[in-house]
Amino acid sequence: MSESVVTVADLIKRFGAVTAVDGVSFSVPGGQTVGLLGGNGAGKTTTLGMMLGLIVPTSGTITVLGHDMRRHRYRALPRMNFSSPYVDVPHRLTVRENLTVYCHLYGLRKIGARIEALAQDLDLGDLLGRSVGTLSAGQKTRVALAKALLNEPELLLLDEPTASLDPDTADYVRSYLETYQRTSGATILLASHNMAEVERLCADVIMLKGGKVVDRGAPASLLQRYGRTTLEQVFLDIARSRNAETDADMAAS
Amino acid sequence: MTSNELTLAARRIWAMILRNYYLMRGSWPRIVDLIYWPTLQMVLWGFITIFFLTNSSWVAQAAGVLLSAVLLWDVLFRGQISLFLSFLEEMWSRNLGHLLVAPLRPIEFAAALIVTSLIRTLIGVGGAAALAMVMFEFSIFDLGLPLIVFFLNLIVLGWSLGLVVSGLVLRFGQGAEGLAWAVVFLIQPISGVYYPIAVLPDWLQIIAAGFPSSHVFEGMRAVLIDGVFRADLLLNATGLNVIWLAIGLGSFLISVRLARSKGLILQMGE
């Protein structure tokens, strides 16, 4: 297994009396797509937010690309990127203007060529001159993905990348992510509660519940451990607090 | 910091200025808004001045005192509101999360807001000042070199207030927006924009002395009415502005840190 790109140790985040993330530890090896799976309020977005430096942990450490995110996050940020349905790019700017601004923010050279290349990859050519606010949800998602890939990130953090997309667009995005991961060797950490997506894209899945890691493994091994045929069933087992051993026994009997 | 790091920091600041340029270029209501209010204020006070010239011995001493006050007050007001609006644009567009996971540092963000505010203020107030020359045969540039130090001191105070209120909105959410709009008008009565500070009650004069604007407007009247440049007032204003800018930058940076600590950045938006 390659060296860890992300190492999270004893991560805790409290918002007043609420503990959103409760002692989470995991590492993510380089060149893999790893899923963070959990229901609403499981701590996925908060964990991603802390890995990006958008949220300061109450305690614990996060090391990304060899840098402590609490002290040296500006060394890691140029090498990573992020996309989330909870964050937009400015709607009044055109696609090209938005991408140009972010190219400068990431210190990229040959901006025009980079934008053209991404536009071709993500089928955005005809949309470059249009305001983002006039695009459909699927087109906006492709723009957000283009923004997230501008700096060819070694680590890509994606929060529900296909949320609210139609099946065709969602499939397009998943295919593109598979291709990007394979060709670039990037590490992708994907937070989702879409089981089919996680099953398709992820080599490894971290299951979160109530802010804790409750299980981890490759999709196939999780299915075997819980005696289930789909990750959705595994997810429901975890959500309803049925543990692996009990379910495996039940399935065997 | 190495020269390469400085270059990258400059590019990030440039990126944010470019972002605002693109926004303005694509939105004519925003361009109109830049010059509409300064122009309206100037026209109103221009006519008031014409009336007062024949009905007020104080205004008659220096015909430009009211129009100068209007235009200089607008430097402070535009400086603050332009910075705040540029910040709000990021919140309204739910873009703050993307900006703060880019390598853009909060201090660079603040620097970009300041430069953008300077450009917007120059366009807005500059347009009104040009129109004043045509409509009322009044030129603010007749103030001469003191105009530069008046302008700088007022706009720096505007930036400081803009940074403070941006920080408040970052910390308390868009519910604090109304307060942020009102803050600049709190200091207008004690800045002596249209009247000498001496008319204020003694206790209010003490508070007024803490604001660079009160020294600037006293200095402006000294130039226009008495024909003297008061270096002491300039020094007071500049010294106070150093403190105010430190407060503005400090509160903005602390607010970003608090927003990170409380997990507010991912929750922001329309």
Written overview of the protein:
- The complex is a heterodimer of chains A (253) and B (270).
- Chain A has ten helices and ten strands.
- By secondary structure, chain A is an alpha/beta fold.
- Chain A has a single domain (29-41, 52-217), classed as Rossmann fold.
- In chain A, strand 1 (4-15) and strand 2 (18-29) form a beta hairpin.
- Chain A is globular, with a radius of gyration of 19 Å.
- Chain B is mainly α and 270 residues long.
- Chain B has one domain (3-267).
- Chain B contains eleven helices and no strands.
- In chain B, helix 4 runs parallel beside helix 7.
- The model of chain B has no long low-confidence stretch (mean pLDDT 90).
Query: Average pLDDT across residues of chain B?
Result: 90
**CATH secondary-structure class of chain A:** Alpha Beta
CATH fold naming of chain A: Rossmann fold
Radius of gyration of chain A: 19 Å
Query: What is the count of helical runs of chain A?
Result: 10
Biggest β-sheet: strands ordered side by side in the sheet of chain A: 6-7-8-3-9-10
Overall geometry of chain B comes to globular
Indicate the CATH architecture of chain A. 3-Layer(aba) Sandwich
- Beta strand % of chain A: 25-35%
What is the quaternary state of this protein? heterodimer
Number of strands of chain B: 0
Low-confidence runs of at least 5 consecutive residues of chain A: 246-253
How many structural domains are formed by the residues of chain B? 1
The rounded distance between the terminal residues' Cα atoms of chain A is 36 Å
